[in-house]
Amino acid sequence: MQLDVSHISIQYQDNVVVDDVSFQLAPASLAAIVGPNGAGKSSLLKGILGIHPLKKGNVYFNGQTLSSVRPHIAYVPQRESVDWDFPATVLDVVLMGRYPHLNWWKRYRSIDFNIARKSLEQVNLIDLADRQIAQLSGGQQQRVFLARALAQEASIYFMDEPFAGVDAATEKNIVSVLKELQAGGKSIMVVHHDLQTIRSYFSSILLLNKKVIAFGPTDEVFTPERIQQTYQRESLLL
Amino acid sequence: MKYEIILTAILVALPCSMLGCFLILRKMVMLGDAISHAVLPGIVIAYLVFDSRDPWMMLWGAGCTGVLTTLCIEILHKRFNVQEDAAIGVVFTFLFALGVILISVFAHNIDLDQDCVLYGEIVYVPLHRMDIGVLSVPVALPPLILVNAIVFFILIVFYPYFKLSTFDSAFAAGVGMSVGLWNYVLMSLVSFTTVAAFESVGAILVIAFLVVPAASAYLWSKQLKTMCLLSLGFAIASVCIGYMIAQQWDVSISASIAMGSGILFGISFVIHTSGKVIVRNKQ
Asked: The dihedral of CA B98, B100, B103, B105: what is its sign?
């Protein structure tokens, strides 16, 4: 799915957190969003997904507005954004990914259970399907969230720091799932922090610090000067 | 007589304990507490405007104030950056105080007194009666039955919406669900339930029903559905235990029921924590 973001700005009260951001993400891209803390990375995702209202600008998916393509868009929020002591099993959470495919009554059909189980297999958690989510490790929680997004069978995926605080095995698993998705023609945008792994994980990169510093193929864009430029503003602000 | 009292208590306990599950999981218990007090001015104003103690008018008056309370708290918290707990405290004490003043200025010699609002008097429930056809029923019952029907209808039909928006509001918004709408629906239900309930059992017992059975059920539950069912069970058990305590020692029924729910929570808590210790020792 092609994503067109044109001149979007997001504002909290008087504070502009995303300023006139434009870029075009081609189908089958695996892109990282990189920038310092407070650069508006999470807000950008939420703006694109309509969770936060846009002050200015437009977002199009294959030329259509968000509301007409919403079932095809998956979002993985930050792991800390939910209470993992919530009374739910792993399977319960993954099944939530099926919501966009259900009618208003929102009761699961047997196909939904099959897809949820298949998603759990992809992230190596099928053995824990009936476990309460409170008993999971951080890496397992992250994979549950990924499985929920997979169960959505979307065309484009937005992930907010899926690698934050996870173990090496989980990171490896997530990367391989992302590459599979990309090979299957899906687009993925990931908020990412670890500059060491960018070259090996992502084919394109968006350097963001409220404004777009650079966007393009990792080989061209991910240069020391550009990185410095992205992170420099933070030190100026401080 | 006796069964009417128990039935009234159970009809209050059921919707409260069910709504309580969602309040606890949304960490909004204090908001339930706030609404149950803040509806007082709504009741008084409804009384003054319509000049009757017709429970339906009061239900509307209080329901509107309940939603207004939620709105005020949200505006203070989100727009003006007042901390949420502080916003709750400011709004509900103000509205409750306003209600008390309205009563003492305009309605002090009528049958709408502050003690009754806070503590309720469930023993009097069978005394105020009305006739429906050939049946003579306590006045308090029809509104309670209606509230039960509304609360359970909405919570059961829209259960998946409440579940998802409670667990992960960002994801829910991402799949196009109106998180704000469900929040207001829940708060309206809490308002209506509180109002229908507190004339007969008092605000304190309403809060106990909103919080304690759900808190006990939370300790035992692996899934939300289990938690809701257990919470209903704990609520009914609290009523039975409370009624027995009240009979035995001839004390306030409302207080005994609230205590009954506390006892059940205590037992759940002890078994739950000692169970955890045993599991840990085995490992």
From this structure: negative
A227 vs A103: CA distance, rounded Å: 46
- Please tell me which residue of chain A has the smallest CA distance to B178: A51
pTM recorded for the entire structure: 0.91
pLDDT digits (tens, 9 = 90+) for B116-174: 566 667 878 888 888 888 888 888 888 899 999 999 999 999 999 999 999 999 999 99
Domain span including residue B12:
2-211
As given in the structure block, the two tokens for residue B242 are: 């409370």
- The ipTM is 0.92
Domains by residue range for chain A, with CATH: 3-237 (3.40.50.300)
Q: How far apart are CA B165 and CA B183, in angstroms?
A: 8
Residue B256 pairs in a beta bridge with none
CA angle (A196 as vertex; A190, A201 as ends), nearest 5: 45
Identify the sign of the CA torsion A74, A76, A82, A87. Answer: positive
How many domains is chain B built from?
1
The partner residue sitting opposite A86, judged by closest CB among B25, B175, B176, is B25
Tell me the backbone φ, ψ of residue A157, rounded to 5 degrees: -120, 135
Contact between A32 and A49 (Cβ < 8 Å):
no
Please name the residue of chain A whose CA is at the shortest distance from the CA of residue B78.
Answer: A13
Q: Is residue B196 part of a domain?
A: yes
What's the residue count for chain B? 283
Inter-residue long-range contacts of A217-226, CB under 8 Å, 24+ positions, other chains counted: A218/A32, A222/A198
Contact A87 B164 (CB under 8 A): no
